[in-house]
Design goal:
- The protein is an alpha+beta fold.
- 34% of the residues lie in helices and 20% in strands.
- The strands form 5 sheets. Strands 8, 13, 14, 15, 16, 17 and 18 form a 7-stranded mixed sheet that branches. The protein has a 5-stranded antiparallel sheet with strand order 5-2-6-1-7, covered by helices on one side. Strands 3-4 form a two-stranded antiparallel sheet.
- Helix 3 packs antiparallel against helix 5 and helix 6 runs antiparallel to helix 7.
- The chain is globular, with a radius of gyration of 24 Å.
Length: 557
């Protein structure tokens, strides 16, 4: 049994294969069972339509020829593992006989974070490792089980990935695959590259779940986030047709479909209510058992994404010099339909999950006069119940709380332990981010222990703790960090934090500390850019390229 100390994607190089005729079996896994053997049952995928479990795989076998210098290194596959169990060797293996080879796309690292809480640094490292392990030609969801380019996973994580690595070319290539895999009606498969190509696979269940809201919206969200991070209009221009086809598909699905549970004559707003079709929904909220069912009404989620994608597409249209009117009007109509159906006059949300509150605020579905009320309800739920989000909303949870007057609750969730929590994973020895909040307990492991989606939380470390932020809606000459904000938001008992990001214009740095003499912030602004520095006490400075030091004797947050 070999423990490499880090969950990785790759393979094992074995240099001692034993005498001729020796058959060696290498079983790779992320977890060791109570009997001390590598456990892979939690990695067994299953057929969603039938529930039938599939083999876990991750097994290599070699028969030794007995030649000196022979090496096992299977370079036509990869595995996700921290441990490897070697069966069949007649002698003992030494540490120098077994090497873990990490395999990933050669992404240039462009961002770093550090603070005086070692647990948050470990969380950041785990999230970066999960990205590295799942950037293997395409953005996979996990490196050991499905190993597929799930569109929803990259939709929620691409902006975070762009904080720590150069993912421009990597994502650009994947977006070409996505456009090639779009169906003739514009729907986007849940996985791209898609084995079935641009059409049905023949599996009734799989085909019913294609075009899921939040997953298909990667067609719009990913190009938009690449524009914000890198300022390359060419990506928007090339993907524009794909974006249009997706939003048109979603709009048509809302217009032409009506959930069978609805009774009576349709109200006018229902033309923009997307309550039919197969959707994964929020997916893996705490305590949820995965059970995707095309019959379930996910209108509160799907309509929110329709409004948001239409809004982003209208902004892209402006950037490209095309008329935004059609999609601006669609966004307004979908937003109005969401409010009519799911938002009460007192700000109460009809399906009151944390995720729906987060989307309501982050996607600007709530009118201004109700934002504080909705944010207060979200904060109260988080205080009482802890984290309650799944795949789609977890990366937005802390920024949404912080930006709507509840920074203290955001830090409370960030630094909480137990289940569900990020630091609870770290406390249990995680070196990558788990798929499920309860990925490991006394009964063993469940699900993948190497999914990056919930690792999107580390964007909060860069954008709020250290404070390096992009504008939400950059103009043609502002994207790619040509204009940015440095606004540290201290909290959680932290006394210091720093982040660095190598932007297209050069390195950006933000470092702050709280000492006996007050708050001190240093900022590096690269040539050709400008920044707005906002201190916790309300002071705002407009600065250009150079090294800046600002101090405050009184800090309020």
């Amino acid at each position: 049994m070999v423990d490499f100390g880090q969950n990785v994607n790759g393979w094992v190089r074995l240099t001692d294969l034993g005498p001729a005729g020796t058959t060696l079996t290498l079983t790779h896994g992320e977890h060791v069972d109570v009997d001390g053997r590598v456990g892979t049952d939690h990695l067994r995928a299953f057929d969603f339509a039938t529930g039938k479990l599939l083999p876990a795989g991750q097994v290599d076998e070699v028969v030794s020829a007995g030649r000196a210098g022979d090496v096992l290194e299977p370079r036509h596959t990869t595995h996700g593992f921290r441990y490897v169990q070697v069966d069949g060797h007649p002698g003992g293996l030494g540490a120098l006989d077994v090497t873990a080879v990490v395999v990933h796309t050669d992404l240039c690292e462009t961002g770093w974070f550090d603070c005086d809480d070692h647990r948050l640094n470990a969380l950041h490292d785990a999230a970066v490792w999960s990205l590295r392990d799942n950037a293997c030609d395409i953005p996979t969801d996990c490196p050991q089980r499905e190993r597929s380019g799930f569109t929803g996973d990259w939709q929620v994580h691409v902006a975070t990935a762009a904080l720590t690595h150069d993912v421009a070319g990597f994502s650009d290539k994947w977006l070409r695959d996505l456009a090639a895999d779009q169906w003739p009606d514009g729907r986007v498969p849940a996985v791209t590259p898609n084995p079935a190509g641009a059409g049905p696979s023949g599996s009734a269940f799989k085909d019913a779940m294609e075009g899921s809201a939040g997953w298909g919206d990667a067609a719009v969200f990913v190009p938009w986030e690449l524009w914000r991070a890198y300022g390359d209009l060419a990506v928007l221009d090339r993907q524009y047709e794909s974006m249009v086809r997706w939003v048109d598909y979603a709009a048509a699905a809302a217009h032409d479909g009506r959930h069978p549970d609805r009774v009576g004559a349709p109200a006018p707003h229902e033309r923009y209510l997307w309550d039919t079709g197969g959707h994964f929904g929020e997916w893996l909220e705490p305590g949820e058992v995965p059970n995707p069912d095309p019959r379930v009404d996910h209108g509160v989620v799907a309509t929110a994404y329709l409004a948001r994608s239409a809004e982003l597409l209208s902004r892209v249209s402006v950037l490209l010099g095309r008329s935004p009117d059609r999609y601006r009007d669609l966004a307004r109509a979908a937003r109005a339909a969401w409010r009519r159906e799911y938002l009460g006059p007192d700000g109460e949300i009809a399906v009151p999950s944390q995720a729906n509150h987060v989307r309501a605020l982050a996607f600007h579905l709530v009118p201004d006069h109700l934002r504080a009320t909705v944010a207060k309800r979200l904060a109260a739920d988080a205080r009482q119940n802890g984290i309650g989000t799944g795949f789609l909303a977890t990366g937005l949870l802390l920024p949404t709380l912080a930006d709507n007057g509840h920074l203290d609750v955001a830090y409370r969730l960030l630094t909480s332990t137990g289940v569900p929590s990020w630091l609870g994973m770290i406390a249990k020895g995680a070196t990558t981010i788990w798929e499920r909040w309860d990925g490991v307990d006394a009964a063993g492991a469940r699900g993948s222990l190497n999914h990056y989606s919930k690792g999107a939380v580390i964007s909060f470390l860069h954008t709020h703790v250290a404070g390096i932020r992009l504008p939400d809606d950059p103009g043609r000459d502002e994207a790619g960090y040509r204009r940015f904000v440095v606004q540290p938001r201290p909290g959680g008992g932290l006394r210091s934090a720093e982040a660095e990001h190598h932007s297209p214009y050069g390195p950006i740095r933000s470092a702050w500390r709280i000492g006996n003499d007050g708050f001190r912030l240093t900022v590096d602004v690269p040539p050709g850019t400008r920044a707005e520095i906002r201190l916790p006490n309300g002071r705002v400075d407009q600065v250009r390229a150079g090294h800046h030091v600002v101090e405050s004797s009184r800090v309020a947050w």
